[in-house]
């Protein structure tokens, strides 16, 4: 049967090559090959010692995980993982494709039969153990994140605590997958609703939060009784592999969690083609998300998508200026501006525009840029050269249309992919920087006069993920929060995501919700059971 | 202020003595003095070594806990705690009364201010730690239960797992005390509902489950942000004190958990009189529960009560006989029949009556009676001489009205409070054994002809706690389950209580629910907040 499924999948896979989905392959192909930084220099001593320490701790994994076994790519190919702060290669990892993915799917499918039948209490205990191990190894995992992704170590530790929180929360939610008893419309019937796991889940995750984007999906999936095939970003696979190593140590059975990385288009195609994969969950670009959604149609998979944002950060003249500056700083510059909820437009009321612009510039000026392992660093490198070029392009477009750089606006003297924290004033909605996700450390300041105008400017986008409001008015906070067409609204706060609250977007920012009790529904089927003939004696 | 409160409470307390509540004192007084068994012999070697081991582990506490400090009674009085299997005194514990209770209430009230403001995540972590410690010390705590209460060691271990489960579950529920947003009836308003802790809780618990009856109350109370004053039964205070010791080790702050024991009427009066105690939660006899409810009226306290049961166990002729016998055995004889959900009447359909009676008798015959520390023991002693006399009285009444003892029916040759597991046939509803809670190892078998007949007999009581049905018919299982006037219904299962499901009774078996998500509501106030004038620009 497994062999037959493999043959069938192979056939379908080849058919896919002639379908419009070919665009998916091209798109994923573009993502696959990280360009090398323009300059390279030797890995810092810190980074070298960290890599060797992680290796000896058993957390530095470089192979994929299929049915509980760590595996090389079948053709032996590898890809390099770079430290964006130094440009040096950290290590080579397996470069897997369709064949490995299909085997991972089979493993997940085989494990699903038993995993889905484990009691909620058992799944809860195993996830709790995994959470405990993630926390025990917090420092090592954080170092791994900084090493492969570049964010400051302090932010990496924050990500471990945040990401592990999803596993803890999911461990608890496992015991709360309550069904319902429905009042019956006929006296001879009894109706109830069960919630059951969807099946095998394909989880495709991005580079910007190497741990959290995985745990936010896999925690709930496993809690519900699903099994998973994870494809981490090939830019940041090491944290994913380390986390999964800990899931094995936690006692989670072979095949429940599988990891393949490398050839993104082939992996994606295999996940889409397989009728055994019943759910696709993806965080990444909007363009790729759309292709995955379309590709899921063939087998009518459940899909949840966390795609690009274009977060407005509205500062009213009745806001506490210090709170607004501090909140904006957090909303904008976290992870060097490389998060999908980063403030992409800072829309300031006329009356305080100059005051706010000056205060923000002064605050940003104090940010220390450097290798994430260095003490006191607030901003690390961007992930790769393409990211830097994008930022440069957006700034160029803005200034060519009248915007002014009041701070930064150029590559940092540290070289490589370091970029100066930047503040640009006199930005308007016609500029690309207001339209496209910058994914970089650039704060564009727009102006507005009235509340109505602020809301109009804020909602003038296809994206609808994160948004921020700074005001001291009770009425305004509710009016604006309700009017914003976004899945997340922070009032007087710049970093609001937590495992107990739902994360997800409106419009073209995605489908579904991750985290919180709401995130469990993405991995569950609803089954209606009707008992008839109940009046029989 | 505290001094003034103390004076006022003292005044109110003296007033209470002149009120009808005086009967409360008499009732509690009757409960307080456990009679010594008729014979005593030296504590068994096992028991001696267990006591000394517990002492060295720091879990053998004999003082009350007030404001984080272990205290003797202010007048130095003590009471003896007996091992019901040997009749020997284990240790003397403080015999506290009104003054100590008032100080405990003050401590709980003072701690409430800060505990109620801790975040849900913090309370969750403390409770999680407490759960972990209870599990780490599982064997010692189980030995303590067997030592002071008499149940078989295996059942004691079961109680630790069950009781600790409530702390774990409450730790998780702490983060799920969700409020609601209500669609507003007017456009210039926004309505929402908050859930906030009730305040200081007085928890009065029985001897039959020394750990679980405490954790089932205290877990949710603390999770909600309440603080507690616990009065464990003076028959079994040691387990309560050990559990409280572990709560201290878990880092739960001083004053959040307080324990007073000894002079039950004075302690009860103080809890009732105090306006600072906003909630009374009690498991015990119906008579005492009614007095506590009446006594709470003066200060309009929230009250939850888990009182006496009179559980029917209905065996239909379409049941699987083996399943029915096994289930009935578990429902009847757990803890020597000394639980409020024990099957008090076994109502068997005519067609299988003789067959069932014989099968049950044969199974019960195999039960080994003895000291709970001995290997293979299925039934330990009854808690005290009064309990044995009650059982004897009920059996005498039944046989005098025509019932037949087909097994047991007399004190066990082991002496003390050991009683033979007993099966009585030809019982009917006119006999006291069908009316009163036996709280002993006696299985009375009644007959019925029709389903309607069975339901009528089953519901013919003021109690409404636990109930059991054995049938293989889908229709019958739903019809009868729905028709039974009981808060818990087990279908083809004799032991059904779990931390994830609600426990509580209909009719005069009590008020409120413990355990599950429903149990949290008992410790919460619902606050409606209306934001008006929301149109102001």
Automatic annotation (TrEMBL), chain A:
Places the protein is found: Mitochondrion matrix
Active site (record annotation): 306
Name assigned to this protein: Succinate-semialdehyde dehydrogenase
Gene Ontology terms for molecular function: succinate-semialdehyde dehydrogenase (NAD+) activity
Domain Aldehyde dehydrogenase, residue spans: 71-529
Oligomer status and interactors: Homotetramer.
EC number: 1.2.1.24
Keywords from the UniProt entry: Mitochondrion, NAD, Oxidoreductase
Catalysed conversion reaction: succinate semialdehyde + NAD(+) + H2O = succinate + NADH + 2 H(+)
From TrEMBL, chain B:
Keyword Oxidoreductase: yes
Alphabetized Pfam families for the sequence: Aldedh (PF00171)
Keyword tags: Mitochondrion, NAD, Oxidoreductase
Coiled coil spans: none
Alphabetical GO biological process terms: gamma-aminobutyric acid catabolic process
Active site: 306
Keyword NAD assigned: yes
Protein EC: 1.2.1.24
Aldehyde dehydrogenase domain mapped to chain residues: 71-529
Subunit structure comment from the entry: Homotetramer.
NCBIfam families: SSADH
Annotated family: Belongs to the aldehyde dehydrogenase family.
Annotated protein name in UniProt: Succinate-semialdehyde dehydrogenase
Biological source species: Glycine max (Soybean)
Source organism phylogeny: Eukaryota, Viridiplantae, Streptophyta, Embryophyta, Tracheophyta
């Amino acid at each position: 049967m497994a062999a037959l499924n493999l043959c069938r999948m192979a056939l379908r896979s080849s058919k896919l090559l002639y379908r419009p989905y070919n665009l998916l392959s091209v798109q994923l192909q573009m993502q696959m090959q990280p360009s090398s930084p323009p300059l390279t220099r030797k890995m810092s001593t810190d980074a070298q010692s960290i890599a060797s320490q992680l290796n000896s701790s058993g957390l530095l994994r470089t192979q994929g995980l299929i049915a509980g076994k760590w595996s090389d790519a079948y053709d032996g190919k590898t890809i390099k993982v770079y430290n964006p702060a130094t440009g040096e290669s950290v290590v080579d990892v397996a470069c897997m494709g369709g064949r490995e993915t299909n085997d991972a799917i089979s493993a997940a499918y085989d494990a699903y039969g038993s995993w889905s039948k484990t009691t909620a209490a058992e799944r809860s205990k195993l996830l709790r153990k995994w959470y405990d191990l993630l926390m025990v190894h917090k420092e090592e995992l954080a170092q791994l994140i900084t090493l492969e992704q570049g964010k400051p170590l302090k932010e990496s530790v924050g990500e471990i605590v945040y990401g592990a929180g999803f596993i803890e929360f999911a461990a608890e939610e496992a015991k709360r997958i309550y069904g319902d008893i429905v009042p019956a419309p006929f006296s001879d019937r009894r109706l109830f609703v069960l919630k059951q796991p969807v099946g095998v889940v394909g989880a495709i995750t991005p580079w910007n939060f190497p741990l959290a984007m995985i745990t936010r999906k896999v925690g709930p999936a496993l809690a519900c009784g699903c099994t998973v095939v994870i494809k981490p970003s090939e830019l940041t696979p090491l944290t994913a592999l380390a986390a999964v190593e800990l899931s094995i140590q936690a006692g989670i059975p072979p095949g429940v969690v599988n990891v393949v990385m490398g050839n993104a288009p082939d992996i994606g195609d295999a996940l889409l083609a397989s009728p055994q994969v019943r759910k696709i969950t993806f965080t990444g670009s909007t363009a790729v998300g759309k292709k995955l959604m379309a590709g899921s149609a063939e087998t009518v998979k459940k899909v949840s998508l966390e795609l690009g944002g274009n977060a407005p950060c509205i500062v009213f003249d009745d806001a506490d200026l210090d709170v607004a500056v501090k909140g904006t700083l957090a909303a904008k510059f976290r992870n060097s501006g490389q998060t999908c909820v980063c403030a992409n437009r800072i829309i300031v009321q006329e009356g305080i525009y100059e005051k706010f612009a000056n205060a923000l510039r002064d605050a940003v000026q104090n940010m220390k840029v450097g290798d994430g392992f260095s003490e006191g660093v607030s901003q690390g490198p961007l992930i790769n050269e393409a990211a830097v070029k994008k930022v440069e392009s957006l700034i160029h477009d803005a200034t060519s249309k009248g915007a002014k750089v009041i701070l930064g606006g150029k590559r940092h003297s540290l070289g490589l992919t370091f970029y100066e924290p930047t503040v640009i004033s006199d930005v308007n909605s016609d500029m690309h920087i207001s339209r496209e996700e910058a994914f970089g450390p650039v704060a564009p300041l727009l102006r507005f006069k009235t509340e109505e105008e602020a809301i109009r400017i804020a909602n003038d986008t296809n994206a609808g993920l994160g948004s921020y409001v700074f005001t001291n008015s009770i009425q305004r906070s509710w009016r604006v929060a309700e009017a914003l067409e976004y899945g997340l609204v922070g009032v007087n706060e710049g970093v609001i995501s937590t495992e107990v609250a739902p994360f997800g977007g409106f419009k073209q920012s995605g489908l579904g919700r991750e985290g919180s009790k709401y995130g469990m529904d993405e991995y569950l089927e609803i089954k209606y059971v009707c008992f008839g003939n109940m009046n029989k004696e």
